[in-house]
Amino acid sequence: MTERELDAAGITDPVLREAYDHCRRLNARHGRTYFLATRLLPVERRPAVHALYGFARWADDIVDALGTGADTARRDAELAALERELAKGLRDGESAEPVVRALADTARRYGIDHAHFADFMTAMRSDLVVTDYADYAALRRYMHGSAAVIGLQMLPVLGTVTDRETAAPHAAALGVAFQLTNFLRDVGEDLDRGRVYLPADLLAAHGVDRERLRWSRDTGRRDPRITSALRAFERLTRGVYRQAAPGLPMLEPVSRPCIRTAFVLYGGILDAVAEDGYAVLHRRSVVPRRRRAVVAADGLARVAAARLRARSAAARRPDGVPVTEAGPVEPRMVEEVA
Length: 338
Fold this sequence. Notes:
The chain is mainly α and 338 residues long. Helices cover 72% and strands 0% of the residues.
């Protein structure tokens, strides 16, 4: 599969191919839902997505998991080194770091605004020192760099049937919706890292603060005030999904099955949290296997339909210009997503 993706993308340099493959392995290990949704994209676009998410994953790992007990100064130094390597890679197209090499190549191929990467690194640096957010406005400022720009980076790769400026706000909202979903699912794990992403004013409106969350996490006991706050955060997150939804039909048809599948699966995490009684301080809620399989099957059907439409359009074109297709439909993906 990897060789076919790289061949289709026209990536021939052996060192660059290895860099992209490294990114792909990072995504397969860390981002199971979106990694598998990416397989619904046309084969030639998948390496670019792996490069974008591989870079984001690598930077995030520096912040969250640079060895046990890594202090802030060490993580800050690692991020500073990454920023220098990123600037060099984007400027020269070369880097000793595989992830940066693949990212720089993707940015060049798709004309991705370098400011998005700078904003992302600013957010990563913020995570080293900021441990909570006073209100949703403060959280949104952070998420511009940590999530919204991911959607904006992806947009040139996915392609649009509208002008890109029209689709951009919806792409940014989708990135934010996905991250808010992660924040809700991972409240307990983030608390263990010393962070609370739920806005303090939202928590306070329900009689909750960091100490109350810590008590619940440590004792395993429930509190209806916490449940009420988590439910309010879920409602807020669903509102952002509604802001993102109009952007789906703005994408090129061959890209829609991938993003729609991710949209539905991530939204399903909110359903799982609610069905689990908002017990996110005590366990991670997951989308049931059967539900994931149904969504995957729907995605595959949409890919097949997009391929048929592309072939019909190509047959009607007098100039014989090839139309992008989504690649072979693989039924075993249903089992893999599940």
